Amino acid sequence: MDGNGRWAKQQGMARLFGHKYAIRAVTNATEGCAELGIKYLTLYAFSKENWGRPKEEVDGLMKLLSNTIDKEINRLIENQVRLLTLGNLSDLPSDCRIKLQNAIEITKNNTGITVLLALNYSGRWDILEATKKISVLAKNGEINIEDIEEEMFCNYLETATIPDPELLIRTGGDLRVSNFLLWQMAYTELYITPSLWPDFTKQELYQAILTYQGRERRFGKIIESNI
Length: 227
Fold this sequence. Notes:
- By secondary structure, this protein is an alpha/beta fold.
- It has a single domain, classed as Undecaprenyl pyrophosphate synthetase.
- It is built from eight helices and five strands, in the order αααβαβαβααββα.
- The strands form two sheets. It has a three-stranded parallel beta sheet, with helices on both faces. Strands 4-5 form a two-stranded parallel ribbon.
- α5 links the parallel β2 (82-86) and β3.
- The chain is globular.
């Protein structure tokens, strides 16, 4: 969800204003995906690298996260949205962590779309943590090295209980994945738009999905024509 700071600058405002305004785009994306019957939506909300931003911005983002949970929890319940997180929540401020854990507990039995917030997350961290967990098992003799295969490795990633993403939508025009779901996106289709995240609408979400539907996903194979 890139471009909040640039969008705010265009309005002559501080970067945090862009983050606040971007909540509307989160709502649009969530509602649009739910209306289309999409089962999982993952939002890259805060990366491990984002801690390197100015303290004022980071503190503002954490407060915004906390306030948004308070405001949106009833809507999540009403719309049967299940909330999950990816990343190391232990580094987040205690109030954010407590509210997130509470929201996860309250929505755990909801049967609609699952929204995953990637917070204090990075793809490299995810892979390293999985490697450490498996290494401990091997060291303790609980598994053999030969047992370590792709399916087993996936079971130790943050996304162990959800499918790999089929489509990555990146706003803001940058042509990179920014350390997001590196293992999981091996064959994910990419949709890059110059639109800044606060300007992202349901219409552009639909366009991204239509573009995805028009692609041929071969997963490294060749699909033979019957003609």
